[in-house]
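User: Structure please.
Assistant: Input sequence and predicted structure:
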Amino acid sequence: MSFNNDYDSFYRPTRHQEQPEPSYDDSQPLTGQVIDSEPQGSPRKRKSRRGLKVIAFALCGVLVFGGVFGLGYAAQGLVRSLRGQEANIYVSSREPVEVTPMAVDGKTLMSYTELYASNVNSCVSINVSETTNIFGQQAQIAASSGSGFIITDDGYIVTNYHVIAGSGTSGVSTDVKVTLYDGTTYDAEVIGGDEDFDIAVLKISADKELTPVVIGSSDALQVGDDIAVIGNPLGELTFSMSEGIVSTTDRLINVDGTPFNMIQITAAVNSGNSGGPLFNMYGEVVGIVSAKLSSSSSSEASVEGLGFAIPMDDVQSMITDIITNGYVTNKPYLGIYGSDFKQSYIPNSVVSQGVYVYSVEEGGAADQAGIRAGDVITKIGDEDITCMDDITTLRKSYVSGDTVTVEFYRSNEKMTTELTFGSMPEQDETTETSSSGNTQQAPSQDQYYDPYDFFNDFFGGGRYYQNAA
């Protein structure tokens, strides 16, 4: 029997069709052609398909891996592309605006940039050093540093008293140097100062024209006004400007027993800013910055958003007085020595607080007004007096020649008198500053003896005070 090898005539059943039995004549020899009659679901077929599946899965894995790798590579390429797009960063072509100094006329509001450019050449850096003898060798040591501002075109400079105070004591000589914004340094002469108001005046002899500041009115300041400070924080960051607002216009601060009426500000004030100018936004100086008060007003080592400045209206006439006479000549003076009242001074006293008068200077204002030792002053003008600090503060509101009503008690009897302030003599100033910068301590008559201090009297003979008014 012969087989038809034509593909079209060969019937291959589908998977679901029943395969017919092969039909052939076994009496005829085979022709060498092998008919694949193995059923479709045979093991050999399954093995072949299993291999195809493995290959298919492998191909899928390759495709998936290739896809992930391709996406990662594409992402890296995108990142590299984005990073490399520096040419697409937009850079402004605006030219810097040149700021030129403006004339301070008290009418034109300034930006902070204009304010700085208009006033920085009127600001100075102050450095105080002392030369002393150490083991037979002359050595110069740094004493203090601060700030200041030029007040006249011939070289007078205003700063804080505590910047130059204490120099020249213990037999050492003092050097005060002033540095301008352009870097020029000059030796400065100390003209004078007043410790009660923390002001001092220096003088330099410059070899070029100087530009003084313009003084404005501190009384015109209001809470919330913008202000600026130029100075030398830490004594190193020279000619730095900080800005803020007015927090309070009349803050009473007590430093080391001395009361001060201050402008409180939010501008950053640090050591080295002392004596620098406080500007309003018209470019006028309305205060003298005091970093000492900022550090003393808080129990913390440092403060933030808290600074103080001495109002110019309180000290302007005194600065003029120092320039003219070397000290404040119109400083009001009562001519008494006293201390905070203790009821033990006068048993069964009807007075609970005030200032006890220990002694009265002959011919002084208090003496002429009829005040005597043993009296207790309780009121001056409209202000109640509870302690010596009250008198010290109140005196800053008057000048010599002003007349006030004084209320006091004598032997539990209330009395009043009219008192006309005298002028504090030059030798009775707390410190007398010579032109060389050396300071001399006040005369010993500023001390007085408290005979009523029984505890100290028993253990060593009373107590001495230094509260003159």
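Residues 43-83 form the longest helix (41 residues).
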